[in-house]
Design goal:
Blueprint: H1 3-16, H2 25-34, H3 41-49, H4 52-62, H5 76-83, H6 85-100, H7 111-131, H8 137-146, H9 150-157, H10 159-172, H11 176-184, H12 188-198, H13 203-210, H14 215-218, H15 226-235, H16 248-259, H17 266-280, H18 293-297
Helix pairs in contact: 1-12, 2-3, 2-6, 3-5, 4-5, 6-8, 7-8, 7-15, 7-17, 8-13, 8-15, 9-10, 12-13
Length: 306
């Protein structure tokens, strides 16, 4: 057995030691439907109606100011038709996965902060993918949304080690994946890919989750790997907890490559993501912290992006 396989086996053993519950039946049904090209709004609506709590959440989501419909939508079939089955699938999976994740007491780790960061990164990645005319923008959204979902599971299982890593990440500004690689020989990105496959998420989504930390490789090829590029860029966005955007310059350098293919100025796109977050976060019952992407971009003394 080679060294890489040995490391992955070690990760598999760590995940086997975790008590990871199955996705709820409503989410499993939506996933099943997403793999059936003949399934449409009627089938999705029927699956959602079987869970009254989920049905209420979907209608609240569709009636949010973000979509701006002129009248209230009270029919689930119409709601799914108006916003699209992929958007509904992502909304359902978002709620299902984050409901299952533990909230470990592990240094500065905060599950609510993870939800905030994940949602903002997903909005950003989808916006980038759309500007690059990538047809699977909703798949990119889901991968960016779930890219760090393994962290609370790993932090609960390896609390003392992750407590040190989280502290190092904060004080030294070193990417967490780099610290994991040097400590364990694997990263939470690989763990996330394993979890995605365990839950039977789409394989393309699992692959994007698995490689979201490969910034150096993916950030240089927006034309060849637009989905991977969008998710990798989202992964280096600052956390709401960060006072300084440690990877700001790397982000701007990689973003400039995307501008050659149609991305707007960074300031314009980030401001749009901030606005989307403010509109949609309350619908998902996510707090809206004051630290915006624009504020991080334009820190005192930093040159403004062009």
């Amino acid at each position: 057995m080679d060294a890489r396989r040995s490391k992955l086996t070690n990760l598999e053993q760590v995940l086997r030691g975790c008590q990871i519950p199955a996705l709820p039946q409503s989410a499993l049904k939506i996933l099943e439907l997403s793999k059936d090209p003949s399934a449409g709004p009627p089938e999705y609506a029927l699956a959602i109606e079987a869970d009254p709590g989920l049905a209420a959440q979907v209608l609240r989501f569709v009636n949010s100011s973000f979509f701006g419909f002129s009248r209230e939508i009270s029919n689930l079939r119409l709601a799914v038709t108006l916003v699209g089955v992929r958007t509904i699938k992502n909304f359902v999976l978002w709620g299902a996965v984050f409901t299952l994740l533990p909230s470990p007491r592990c240094g500065p780790f905060d599950l609510q902060l993870l939800r905030q960061d994940s949602f903002r990164r997903a909005l950003f990645a989808r916006t980038v993918a759309r500007h690059l005319r990538f047809p699977e923008a909703e798949e990119v959204f889901l991968a960016a949304l779930l890219q760090d979902m393994a962290l609370p599971i790993l932090a609960k299982q390896l609390t003392l080690r992750y407590m040190v890593l989280f502290e190092q990440r904060q004080t030294e500004g070193v990417p967490l994946s780099r610290l994991e690689e040097s400590t364990f020989g694997w990263t939470h990105a690989q763990a996330g890919g394993m979890l995605a496959r365990r839950w039977n998420l789409p394989e393309n989504c699992a692959a994007l989750i698995e490689m979201h930390n490969q910034f150096d490789q993916l950030s240089t090829c927006p034309e060849g790997e637009p989905g991977g590029y969008a998710v990798a860029l989202s992964a280096v966005l600052p956390s709401f907890a960060d006072e300084i955007w440690a990877e700001r310059e790397q982000f701007l350098e990689a973003y400039a490559l995307g501008q050659e293919l149609g991305l707007p100025p960074a300031e314009e796109l980030l401001q749009g993501v901030d606005e989307q977050f403010r509109e949609l976060a309350p619908v998902l019952r996510i707090a809206v912290p004051p630290q915006t992407l624009i504020r991080c971009l334009n820190v005192a003394g930093a040159p403004r992006a062009q």
